[in-house]
């Protein structure tokens, strides 16, 4: 398989963690801020509440909490970690927050950097981590998805503000000894022609610096989204990319124990599962509690299902992220050592 050219080592998925956020904002509370209702939001999206970061929370603090918890669950120490990849679109520092997390958790040996691919970010980062492990460059890697979308939300726009929440989740990936490789396959895609469907763009004006030299002065605007277009894109492209990834792995949908999609909308989850003929009991959904937490949604869901004992060692998982870019991708993996 072309994805594995030059591969010398396998990958195992050995730990998970997530951050606990205190504050939840219910649909009923939101209906006091914008013209909406619990009934509209729940029916159209499946969301009942979302968590909002407190004044002292940050991508650094929540990402560090998730990473530390994942490292502990893998029975490792922070100093065992070689690489930290942080998938985020809302860093505390535009130069990157991964190094801040590296410092916060005391992973002094690790190299750390950010990856930005919105709601696909966690799957893209997981696949990137696997390349470093497969080539033998690194042994223990932490992949974090952390986003505070409340920072990029226009709380006056009912079409978007009802969807998003804050959160952080993480996994530990490790080099496998012997022949086994638990990342069975992946498929990643981008389509910049649809970029206008979902943005948090930099808006600026030109300010004269000297003579005819100008500089751009502005700020990042809140999320704008063509909801219907993103919905159409997701229900078509997500089943397609999962089927392609399954094909690379020589598997079929019957081999999947758990489907873990980016938690954007329950209707998208249902439509994808129906197209793939995967029973609803095997579809992981926690969006009623968390809303759409961007790059954090897949690792939070994964961690909740692992900790509750539903996902067991040896289970086959199909992960798929999708969103801004537009970007989308799937990874098929076996959980555990
Ligand atoms: N409360 C009440 N009414 C609302 C709300 C609201 N929160 N939002 C919109 N409406 C109204 C609209 O104004 C419209 O009214 P009108 O017919 O009088 O004009 C009506 O409800 C229908 O609006 P639509 O936008 O057509 O609603 P739709 O059924 O498409 O649902 C939704 C909107 C939930 C956003 C859906 O399109 C969706 O989930 N899309 C996918 C979004 C997504 O998955 N994004 C993921 C990526 S996010 C990332 O990458 C950062």
From TrEMBL:
Top class in the EC scheme: transferase
Predominant cellular place of this UniProt entry's protein: cytoplasm
Pathway: Lipid metabolism; fatty acid biosynthesis
Region of interest called ACP-binding, as start-end residue ranges on this chain: 263-267
Reactions listed under catalytic activity: 2-methylpropanoyl-CoA + malonyl-[ACP] + H(+) = 4-methyl-3-oxopentanoyl-[ACP] + CO2 + CoA; (2S)-2-methylbutanoyl-CoA + malonyl-[ACP] + H(+) = (4S)-4-methyl-3-oxohexanoyl-[ACP] + CO2 + CoA; malonyl-[ACP] + acetyl-CoA + H(+) = 3-oxobutanoyl-[ACP] + CO2 + CoA; 3-methylbutanoyl-CoA + malonyl-[ACP] + H(+) = 5-methyl-3-oxohexanoyl-[ACP] + CO2 + CoA
Record InterPro entries: ACP_syn_III_C (IPR013747), ACP_syn_III_N (IPR013751), FabH (IPR004655), Thiolase-like (IPR016039)
Keywords: Acyltransferase, Cytoplasm, Fatty acid biosynthesis, Fatty acid metabolism, Lipid biosynthesis, Lipid metabolism, Multifunctional enzyme, Transferase
CDD domains to which the protein is assigned, alphabetical: KAS_III
Record domain Beta-ketoacyl-[acyl-carrier-protein] synthase III N-terminal: where: 113-192
EC nos: 2.3.1.180
Gene3D superfamilies: 3.40.47.10
Pfam families: ACP_syn_III, ACP_syn_III_C
Domain of life: Bacteria
GO biological process, one term: fatty acid biosynthetic process
Beta-ketoacyl-[acyl-carrier-protein] synthase III C-terminal domain residues: 248-335
GO CC terms: cytoplasm
Assembly notes: Homodimer.
Protein's job: Catalyzes the condensation reaction of fatty acid synthesis by the addition to an acyl acceptor of two carbons from malonyl-ACP. Catalyzes the first condensation reaction which initiates fatty acid synthesis and may therefore play a role in governing the total rate of fatty acid production. Possesses both acetoacetyl-ACP synthase and acetyl transacylase activities. Its substrate specificity determines the biosynthesis of branched-chain and/or straight-chain of fatty acids.
Domain topic, free-text comment: The last Arg residue of the ACP-binding site is essential for the weak association between ACP/AcpP and FabH.
UniProt protein name: Beta-ketoacyl-[acyl-carrier-protein] synthase III
Organism from which the protein derives: Phormidesmis priestleyi
């Amino acid at each position: 398989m072309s994805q594995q050219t030059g591969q010398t080592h396998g990958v195992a998925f050995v730990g998970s963690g997530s951050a606990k956020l205190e504050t939840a904002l219910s649909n009923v509370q939101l209906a006091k801020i914008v013209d909406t209702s619990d009934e509209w939001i729940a029916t159209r999206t499946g969301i009942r509440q979302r968590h909002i970061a407190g004044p002292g929370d940050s991508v650094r603090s929540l990402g560090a909490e998730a990473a530390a918890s994942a490292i502990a669950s893998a029975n490792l120490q922070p100093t065992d970690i070689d690489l930290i990849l942080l998938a985020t679109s809302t860093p505390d520092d535009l130069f990157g927050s991964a190094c801040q997390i590296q410092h916060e958790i005391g992973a002094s040996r690790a190299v750390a950097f950010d990856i930005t691919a919105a709601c696909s970010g966690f799957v893209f980062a997981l696949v990137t981590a696997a390349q470093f492990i497969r080539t033998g460059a690194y042994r223990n890697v932490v992949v974090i998805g952390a986003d505070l979308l409340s920072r990029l939300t226009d709380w006056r726009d009912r079409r978007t503000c009802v969807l998003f929440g804050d959160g952080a989740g993480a996994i530990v990936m490790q080099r496998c000894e012997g022949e086994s490789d638990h990342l069975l396959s992946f498929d990643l895609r981008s389509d910049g022609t649809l970029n206008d469907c979902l943005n948090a763009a930099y808006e600026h004006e030109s300010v004269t610096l000297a003579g005819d030299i100008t500089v751009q002065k502005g700020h990042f605007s809140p999320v704008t989204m063509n909801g219907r277009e993103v919905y159409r894109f997701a229900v078509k492209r997500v089943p397609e990319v999962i089927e392609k990834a399954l094909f690379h792995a020589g598997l079929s949908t019957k081999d999947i124990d758990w489907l873990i999609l980016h938690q954007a909308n329950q209707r998208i989850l249902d439509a994808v599962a129906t197209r793939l003929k995967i029973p609803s009991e095997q579809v992981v959904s926690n969006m009623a509690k968390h809303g759409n937490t961007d790059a954090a949604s897949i690792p939070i869901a994964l961690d909740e299902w692992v900790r509750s004992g539903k996902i067991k060692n040896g289970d086959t998982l199909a992960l798929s992220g999708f969103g801004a870019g537009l970007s989308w991708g799937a990874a098929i993996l076996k959980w555990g050592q």
